[in-house]
Amino acid sequence: MKIAEYGKAITSYIESPTKKEKDLLKLRAEEANRTFLADGTPPPNKPKQLKDLFERINRTVLAVRSNTIQPEFILPALEELTQEYVADGLISGAEARKFAIERKEYWDKWISENPKQTTPVFDFDNEGNATEVDQEEIIKRINEADGGRIGFQFGGGRDAQLMGTAASQKYFKERKVDKPTPTFEGPAGGAKVTDVKFASKAQEAEYIKILKERFKFPKGSKEARKISTNADLAKKFGISLNNVERVNRALINKLNLSYPAQTYEGYEKIQRERDKRRKENIKKTSSGAVESKIKGDIKKIDPTALANDVDIAHRASLKANANLGANYLTTSLGIDSKIVNQSIIKPIEQKLGTLYEMQKNLIKDLKPGEVPKDIQKQLEKINIKISELADRTDGVLQGVLVDEKTLKPRIYGVDYSKVLGFGLVDKPVSELTKADRDLIKLNISEQIKAAKKPSIKSQLLKAVGTGAKTVGKVIKPLGIGFGVNAVKNAISQADEMGIELSPLDYAMAFDSGDANIAINNYKRRVDPEFAAQERAKDLAQMTDDFEEVGQTTFGKYNDQIKNIKLP
Questions:
Q1: How many other CB atoms sit within 10 Å of the CB of residue 57?
Q2: CA-to-CA distance for 301 and 295, rounded, in angstroms?
Q3: Using an 8 Å Cβ cutoff, are 411 and 404 in contact?
Q4: What is the pLDDT of residue 538?
């Protein structure tokens, strides 16, 4: 029997029995003197035998691996059957998978070594041991299973495969169902979901109503999830998540459904814009995939920490690293409490952001070794100011400095007690291996405990609120309420002035807690003369700051001096 012939026979074999077949089975049972209850009560179910499951798994694996029948036609039924055996305690899921993998490996090897040859058929015992069945017995079983309907021979090759696939598709489209069921069309290996069968018109109307209600709201929105998630649909209609997705896809195409565009306003709009820029910078300089794995490692140690208490903190600016084309280092990742990461430290981050923007503009189009003296001096002043601000955060933030001559970036203010791995892993995040992450995991529990300590918050509030003067503004410890009020005030001022602020303008107002900064940024953008005047003020202010800072810090030598151990 060729593979294609076997596949066609299987299709017939797995169909539900017809009335004729049921009558035939009843007759055979009566002939074997099996007693049926007189009152119409069905006889007891035959105890499950593992050999039957092993045979079914083997048959299904062959059909799929030989590309005779699409997996979606037979695997769901096999899964349901296997779960019955698992529920009865006859086999575990792992044992069933192991057997399926063994049969896959057998058939893959057999098919590669015996192209277009007759496939052997096996019986199995309850231990999973196989015994090959001879051809005469195979033909007898197939005809018995089909109630005598198979009275013709199958041809081999591609035509037979197409016939087998078409027959199975026709069967699955026409059979009665008790739940929403996707139907397929197309050749083996390329069949696509085209429609859905329902148990009744009422079931179809109910499903479509729920789906249409979901499509009244933006995709993934809270409102859409309140109507029904895919998991809700799976539970309500008794189908798998995979089939929910297939059913939805068919109905979306059939009914021409589309989600309305998601729109955001006010504070939520600002947050979305900031999140988008953050993801873009992570893509440029770090690795979103690796950072997600690190979050997964943290969840394994403390499942609720990231949800309730702490964040993964980027201690060095993602934007500054992206501006300079630098790889983001593992020693710039840490763990902070949510209030520190999302609120307390924001004012200094905003001030550092201004400095990084000035830094980027100064070195634009410059080449290493060809930096004019006046630019070198300005870069040195900016580096010192960045260092001073980073110092004030006690290792929560690091500075991204630029060498005045070579233009190479370097990270300032690394406190190894506050970074992942305590400095034992010092390489780009994108290059982290599982072994590196395992090393990092050793200290995560202690770092989470440290981040939760109230003393950290009070120390930072004190540091952030003490005279950190930049570009004429005094930094204040800000909560989210300050930022929201600043945005509202900026909106009101913009309406009065008849101007339209950008998301960046609003973001600056939110970060600084000052609506005037949003207006100022707008004027800089649209009025070149005003922008030039403001840049002159910024430079003068930077000179004042440098003189103030220069009395108490050591500029670019801070790292070396701070690391000296005095007796």
A1: 22
A2: 10
A3: no
A4: 59
